[in-house]
């Protein structure tokens, strides 16, 4: 196969054989780099000579260096076609036997002596061969040898001797050209595609040996079609072994240089190779030229990653480690980029020297700038391995935690926060690192610990300066909790010393973050939008951006929050940052839950769960809480129950996400007629909210949840008390929380007031974008309108609720929670007054409010007031129940 393009060279050998038959002996030296096809050409020529009935004596130079060695003349003498010596004669050496027999053999016709790899033969044997042929120059002897031009002989005079001999010719085998490569490929398959020809020519460098190996690796490919990306990057086992074979055939120096090239990679240079191998620069240049000519390397690197991996694996691991360390030191001294030096430190797993840890940290920062998170994590983890206790170790842990957040937030919580918290509690953490630690704690939902960190930091700096413009969640956490929790005067920040708690709180609330809790929510939503517009997603801004999205959700900008999450999730996926993707996908699921995009919300939670696989993580708590809430909203109570049936990791209860878990579980209890259990969870939320310093109606409206549970249990006074406490505690007078409060007020009010309050709640829910709650409120409004005998409006409210429910989940029915289960038994009926009894009797007979008013000569408003008290005393909610309850009481 390799002779498709070697016809010219083979023809020269045949011509020399023909001319040798008519004249003196001749010598032909075939040169070429390792793998160029010299041995194959020599074999083809000997086959031709033997077929033509010439005497052929052949020898292998590598056999001379084999174990056990077989000298050149042992090989040649064994092939002499003469009788063995007679008995009694003195035995002679193989060299003498060959020198004595050669002229007699040549008398019978042209004799061909072929020696392959002549560079392996000692000068003494080679010189004797040359002299023997020279002595019988008038005989018909053709000496053909193959030689590597860049590999020095064991004895330097050999090359000179071949050059000065008369009748010596040289044949040089160069790399195959494009035509030859195409012809060789065509011998194995149909005419190949041009891209296959270019690919194989580049990988082989025109070397027949490497090309043969590549054809073997690609033998099952259809080369009539262009190669795919996968085919171009596939592992090439035969090719890798062929490269190793070329290196070994090229000599020890070539092997050493090849091994160094595999270790150095892109860092290789002739100067560095010379320094590492202790080979002279001139010889390095010659060897590199030889390796380029033989197709092994292109420039200073291997032509395919498989070749580099194969050569690298051939190096002893201990030697490889030492080489990597030496290379790293040499590159560091030469001022090479940190990433180049770090690659060798990573390969050697060496971080004992301080400069090595510095290089790794610098390389991590460079890698982060180039979006190579994997490299950054590897560098920082290695820098952390042998780093002694101290500030450097804390800083590496902190940076590694921020970088690891890109990949998986659970890694931060499980691997980095424990040691960072130990450093904080032991007092060894520098003040500059407290901000970062508070960010990490807050991101993991551990507000109580985050506040502890901030409180300590506040004793050293101005909290107003630190928090203003800082990421919003930390800002409101500090602002709200600093003056809800008793703190000694001497422990407060110096910036607020001498002020009253109210004055200090007001000073903090003047920040953009604080204004959210006591100011206009439109301003805060605008500030959040501006932050999202101008801030690029990075390790430094990820928490600020997530806080801005949370602010949009809390201020009921649900569609805006959804769009921003969608954009950031997409960007995170493109930048291969699944950790960021999970953070914003979870926020997107919360926005979807409130908007009624229930199926889309499930998809978001599943995206989170593909990243957050460790259930001990606080974010896993948030994901499962949101998943359960979505199931409950969809009416899939069995699936929600299975979520809550799983064991609860201890870490969950230390996280603020535990509040979401209790909220969802309490909602399931209420929905499945277990109001006592639901109330217990809601009251527990209140205690934890105070402990976590987030007991603010805007942030955690737990009183509304508990009030709803008290109503389910038939205790309106307790519900009214919690509702009043919620209203008094928060400045917000609009939005979703206000709508929830209005709906609860309506449940405690009379028919006319109930309708008015529910209409306000409908407007607020519609403005907030909370479609599931809007549908439920419309159902309540329809019922209230029906009580007032506004049947047309009642039907319109119910139809609207049904349409909204169907838009949230096709086929869903907007059933209010209190109608989804049996009502709890009401309190014992109280005694009606005479006037109330008269009104009740007429209502029981089916009279309308106006008819009752005309019959009793009172106003319709007075009838409504009587009815409200009748409902309360009889423990009913509908006028149709008046007759039943009144009759049972009379009985």
Q: Tell me the strand order in the biggest sheet.
A: 2-3-4-1-5
Strand content: under 5%
Q: What is the count of DSSP helices, taking H or I runs of 4+ residues?
A: 47
Shape: elongated
Question: What's the main sheet like?
Answer: 5 strands, parallel
Pick out its properties.
891 residues, five-stranded parallel sheet, elongated, two-stranded antiparallel ribbon, 47 helices, 65% helix, mainly alpha, 7 strands
Structure description:
The chain is built from 47 helices and seven strands. A five-stranded parallel β-sheet has the order 2-3-4-1-5, with helices on both faces. The protein has a two-stranded antiparallel sheet with strand order 6-7.
Layout of helices and strands, plus pairs?
Layout: H1 7-20, E1 26-32, H2 38-51, E2 55-60, H3 61-64, H4 72-77, H5 94-107, E3 111-116, H6 123-135, E4 141-147, H7 157-164, E5 168-173, H8 178-186, H9 194-204, H10 208-217, H11 229-232, H12 237-249, H13 252-264, H14 270-277, H15 281-293, E6 297-298, E7 301-302, H16 305-313, H17 317-333, H18 338-348, H19 354-369, H20 373-385, H21 391-407, H22 409-426, H23 434-443, H24 447-458, H25 463-467, H26 472-481, H27 501-509, H28 512-518, H29 521-534, H30 542-554, H31 558-574, H32 578-595, H33 598-611, H34 618-633, H35 637-645, H36 657-671, H37 675-691, H38 702-712, H39 716-729, H40 736-748, H41 751-768, H42 771-787, H43 791-808, H44 834-844, H45 849-856, H46 860-874, H47 880-890
Parallel strand pairs: 1-4, 1-5, 2-3, 3-4
Antiparallel strand pairs: 6-7
């Amino acid at each position: 196969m390799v002779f498709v393009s070697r016809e010219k060279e083979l023809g020269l050998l045949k011509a020399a054989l023909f001319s040798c038959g008519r004249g003196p002996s001749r010598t032909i030296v075939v040169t070429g780099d390792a793998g160029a096809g010299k041995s194959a050409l020599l074999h083809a020529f000997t086959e031709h000579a033997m077929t033509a009935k010439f005497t052929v004596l052949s020898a292998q130079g590598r056999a001379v260096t084999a174990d056990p060695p077989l000298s050149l003349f042992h090989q040649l003498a064994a092939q002499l076609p003469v009788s063995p010596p007679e008995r009694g004669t003195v035995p002679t050496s193989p060299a003498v036997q060959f020198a004595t027999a050669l002229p007699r053999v040549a008398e019978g016709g042209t004799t061909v002596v072929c020696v392959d790899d002549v560079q392996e033969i000692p000068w003494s044997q080679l010189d004797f061969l040359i002299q023997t042929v020279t002595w019988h120059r008038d005989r018909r002897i053709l000496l053909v040898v193959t030689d590597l031009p860049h590999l020095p002989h064991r004895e330097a005079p050999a090359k000179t001797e071949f050059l000065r001999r008369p009748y010596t010719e040289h044949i040089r085998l160069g790399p195959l050209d494009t035509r030859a490569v195409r012809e060789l490929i065509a011998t194995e398959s149909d005419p190949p595609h041009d891209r296959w020809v270019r690919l194989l020519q580049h990988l082989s460098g025109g070397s027949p040996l490497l090309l043969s190996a590549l054809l073997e690796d690609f033998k099952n490919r259809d080369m009539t079609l262009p190669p795919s990306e996968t085919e171009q990057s596939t592992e090439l086992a035969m090719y890798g072994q062929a490269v190793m074979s070329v290196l070994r055939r090229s000599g020890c120096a070539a092997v050493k240089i090849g091994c160094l090239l595999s270790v150095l990679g892109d860092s290789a240079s002739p100067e560095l190779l010379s320094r590492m191998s202790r080979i002279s620069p001139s010889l390095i240049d010659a060897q590199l030229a030889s390796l380029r000519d033989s197709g092994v390397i292109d420039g200073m690197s291997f032509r395919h990653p498989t070749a580099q991996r194969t050569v690298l694996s051939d190096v002893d691991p201990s030697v490889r480690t030492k080489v990597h360390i030496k290379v790293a030191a040499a590159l560091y001294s030469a001022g090479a980029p940190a990433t180049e030096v770090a690659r060798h430190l990573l390969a050697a797993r060496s971080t004992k020297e301080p400069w090595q840890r510095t290089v790794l940290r610098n390389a991590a920062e460079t890698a982060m700038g180039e979006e190579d998170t994997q490299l950054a994590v590897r560098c920082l983890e290695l820098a952390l391995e042998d780093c002694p206790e101290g500030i450097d170790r804390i800083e590496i842990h902190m940076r590694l935690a921020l970088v690891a957040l890109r990949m998986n937030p659970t890694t931060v919580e499980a691997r980095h926060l424990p040691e960072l918290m130990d450093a904080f509690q032991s007092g060894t953490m520098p003040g500059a690192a407290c901000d970062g630690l508070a960010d990490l704690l807050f991101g993991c939902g551990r507000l109580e610990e985050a506040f502890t960190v901030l409180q300590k930091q506040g004793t050293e700096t101005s909290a107003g300066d630190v928090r203003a413009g800082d990421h919003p969640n930390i800002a409101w956490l500090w602002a709200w909790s600093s003056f809800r929790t008793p703190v000694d005067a001497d422990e407060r920040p110096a910036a607020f010393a001498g002020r009253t708690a109210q004055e200090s709180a007001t000073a903090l609330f003047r920040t953009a973050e604080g204004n959210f809790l006591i100011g206009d929510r439109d301003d805060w939503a605008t500030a959040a939008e501006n932050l999202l517009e101008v801030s690029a997603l990075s390790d430094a801004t990820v928490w600020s951006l997530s806080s801005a999205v949370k602010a949009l959700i809390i201020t009921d900008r649900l569609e805006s929050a959804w769009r921003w999450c969608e954009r950031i999730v997409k960007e995170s996926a493109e930048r291969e940052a699944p950790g960021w993707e999970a953070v914003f996908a979870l926020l997107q699921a919360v926005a979807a839950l409130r908007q009624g995009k229930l199926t889309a919300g499930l998809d978001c939670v599943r995206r989170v769960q593909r990243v957050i696989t460790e259930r001990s993580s606080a974010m896993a708590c948030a994901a499962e809480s949101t998943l359960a809430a979505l199931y409950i909203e969809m009416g899939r109570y069995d699936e929600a129950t299975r979520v809550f049936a799983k064991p609860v990791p201890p870490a969950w209860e230390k996280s603020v996400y535990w509040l979401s878990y209790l909220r969802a579980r309490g909602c399931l209890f209420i929905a499945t007629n277990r109001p006592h259990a639901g109330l217990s969870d809601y009251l527990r939320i209140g205690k934890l909210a105070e402990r976590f310093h987030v007991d603010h109606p805007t942030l955690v409206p737990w009183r509304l949840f508990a009030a709803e549970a008290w109503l389910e249990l038939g205790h309106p006074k307790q519900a009214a008390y919690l509702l009043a406490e919620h209203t008094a505690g928060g400045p917000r007078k609009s939005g979703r929380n206000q709508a929830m409060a209005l709906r609860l007020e309506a449940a405690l009010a009379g028919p006319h007031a109930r309708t008015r309050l529910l209409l306000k709640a409908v407007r607020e829910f519609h403005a907030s974008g909370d479609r599931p709650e809007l549908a439920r409120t419309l159902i309540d409004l329809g019922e209230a309108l029906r009580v007032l005998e506004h049947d047309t409006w009642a039907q319109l409210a119910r139809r609207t609720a049904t349409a909204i429910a169907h838009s949230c989940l096709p086929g869903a029915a907007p059933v209010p929670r209190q109608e989804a289960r049996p009502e709890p038994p009401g309190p014992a009926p109280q005694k009606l007054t005479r006037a109330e009894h008269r009104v009740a009797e007429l209502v029981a007979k089916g009279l309308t409010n106006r008819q009752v008013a005309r019959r009793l000569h009172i106003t319709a408003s007075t009838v409504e007031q009587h009815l409200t008290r009748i409902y309360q005393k009889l423990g009913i909610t509908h006028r149709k129940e008046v007759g039943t309850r009144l009759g049972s009481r009379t009985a």
